[in-house]
Amino acid sequence: MENVLKKLDLIAGINTEKTIALWLERLAFLFLILMTLMAPHSIAATQIAYILGMIFWIARFFIKPRPKFIKTALFIPFLAFGIWAIISAAFSYAPDISFDKLRNVSLFLIFFFVINNLRTIKSVKLIAFALIFSCMVSVIWTPVERVIGRGVEIQGVKAESPLAKAEMIQGDTIVKVNGKKASSPEQVLAEFEENEVVKINLYRPDFYLDVDVKRIDLLDGKTANEKLGFESWKRSRNWRSAGFYGHYATFAEVLQLIASLAFGLFIAGFGLKRSVREGERERGSEGVIFNRLSRPIAPSLHPAFSLSHILLFICVAMMALALLLTVTRASQAAFMVSAFSIVLLGASRKTFLILLAVAIPLVIGGLIFLQQSRQTNFFDSTDNSTTWRQTVYREGFKLWTKNTRHFILGVGMDSIKRYKDEWGLFDNGKLPPGHFHSTPLQLVVERGLSALLLWLLILGIYKLKMFKILRQNNFKDWIEKGIILGAFGGMVGFFVSGLVHYNLGDAEVAMIFFLIMALAIRIVRERE
Length: 528
Prior knowledge:
Blueprint: H1 2-12, H2 16-38, H3 43-60, H4 75-90, H5 95-105, H6 109-116, H7 121-148, E1 150-157, H8 162-165, E2 173-177, E3 180-181, H9 185-192, E4 197-204, E5 207-214, H10 224-228, E6 230-236, H11 248-269, E7 274-275, E8 282-283, E9 289-290, E10 300-301, H12 307-326, H13 329-346, H14 349-374, H15 384-400, H16 404-409, H17 416-419, H18 425-429, H19 439-447, H20 449-472, H21 478-498, H22 507-527
Antiparallel strand pairs: 1-2, 1-6, 2-3, 2-4, 4-5, 7-10, 8-9
């Protein structure tokens, strides 16, 4: 390889190695940007950009001078976390399934891909704002979609109707008919002309269901409403928003992380803490601030209500609205905890009290909206999703502590898909199958206690690194501090939500979490 490059140098009269290395770095960073832009919208596009970026980055190590690999204090814990996942998969009850699941575990490599391709702090800022403003595409679409409405929400269902025979009830919304989006009763009825049995996908607050409706059960009548057996219909405006993802929980978790990042920037840049404009003042050896004439001066507040602050405020407000429309309690609570942490670390006492006063009526309004949308309270022990979790939590803990093998190595990632019936999970098959809806519980059941301890170690090191730099307050500008604040809040929210959601197992969420982690640690390395 080196001989070929030397010959090319002689022929072209240029430094071929240097040129190739430069283009590999540019391409890796280009796909990093594309990965960031796609992350809030499409897992497929995000992973394609990530894989291509990784290929160019790895190829760069074969060209001299080889770049330095940035390890950070998280290198050993991440390496151990990945190796333990491989060991656990080898001892899994279903090794074929568990080894396939290692693809999701390997997503932590995004952290190393990102941090090694952020050459400057400017590139960190670029990626942070690209993530926020790209997310705004789906955030803006969310309320617009709600205003437009969707599907066919039926009212006055007759007992003898074909829909009632398929167990559809008042207020159900026909979302799809034979895989096609439903737009009117006439379009629904048209499907019966070509099919003896029509598959209807419907939304009933909190659940999507598929039912079969038979053409022979259609009623006599002149209109589509009469034949289908309901009195009236309207476009539905009651569902759990999912952005451009396929699931509302994924969208809610992603919103929590990115909204925290935007809120951290807003708090840091709002003049809530004393700051110094870049290039206007320098710190003396004693830490006293001097102007260009070397005369001591008092620090001034960063000007509030600049265009950047206004835009960030709009982003945070819109993201909060979109998060509300997902009607996902855990993610909403996580964002509230995240915002509290950010304000506590980055705002003055006066501002803290002001924001608290503003937040109280917003939280009350959100609780009312939740109750109306899901017909449940924020904390409701009788809610189906709550009772479902209580059941799988008990089952998961019992499975983990069943024997020494399970306690140390776990049962293997996703092995419950094959052995759930044998292990009597999900109330012996009476409940819809899934996972254990808790990151800590999922880790110990599938990979043993060591996996959970390693994950907590990773989060602990990450937290301490950010907390230390925040205490030092040694930032070049408010954007650096805002990214750290937002990443810190997002990490706290991610952990809180992970207690009742398996968010680490959601690829879209994990990719964004590791991306933001890399942004924060890159700044920490620069300012330590």
